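Write out the bound-state structure for guanine.
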Amino acid sequence: MSATATDGKIIDGKAFATRLRGRIASAVADLKARHGLTPGLTVVLVGEDPASQVYVRSKGKQTVEAGMNSSEHKLPASASQAELLTLIARLNADPKVHGILVQLPLPKQIDEQSVINAIDPAKDVDGFHVVNAGRLATGGKAMVPCTPMGCLMLLQDRLGDLSGLEAVVVGRSNIVGKPMAQLLLGASCTVTVAHSRTRDLPAVCRRADILVAAVGRPEMIRGAWVKPGATVIDVGINRIDAGGDKPRLVGDVAYDEAYAVAGGITPVPGGVGPMTIAVLLRNTVIAACRQAGLAEPDL
Ligand code: GUN
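---
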């Protein structure tokens, strides 16, 4: 049974993220000691979405634990786009702020892409700015979106060189699916992006040596869709209300079924999830070094 597995199939993102945060803390201590530079991350939260509040608190805590400066700006759910753009202009001009993250989703009256594109691309630690998306697509020096970068790090740690492998990404969002496909292409995989209109999705998935699920639909990817020995990366975090009890967290992959077939698989929770904030911290250190004209640490 998977929970007590000793067959090495589980890809432990929680442990990997802990080690990465340790390396980040060392790099930050070094930047402070040798250059008097303390990387700073600012998070902007509009409204009171409970899930967003949990994420923002967690980001702040881990930023401080890594030795970096952390600040938060909270605006009411009624805030206008103009107010938010004024705040972003102020943060763009603040030399102590190396990374700016605007927590998504934003309230309906605000156009998300306009806000993201108002962030200085050098401070866009989410990697969502159109300039960073373009740089990623053309092999430039981008800030790379955190969740797909975390997936790539887990894959390279597991498999080493990915070149020539068949990768199937299920999901085409700007936040995960599209940048994931770009990163896998950059690692010389043969990449297929599947989505809700894909014909015979099970057959497409069965081609994959690397299967990345980022659709946001609980347990949609079945065990019979997984090629024996494939590496399965589950980006989904879906809350299932089991009536009364605490909600159960499940991924986009039917875990027990896929586990039986896969060569390696990320659990939910404890797989991709913990990587996102760790890579955000990494991006903040990289952004601070680039802004200060210093060599980037190897993280
Ligand atoms: N909301 C859910 N995931 C993310 C993320 O990675 N970045 C931001 N800014 N908001 C999110």
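---
Strands lie at 40-46, 69-75, 99-102, 166-170, 190-194, 210-213, 231-234, 238-240, 248-250, 264-265.
The radius of gyration is 19 Å.
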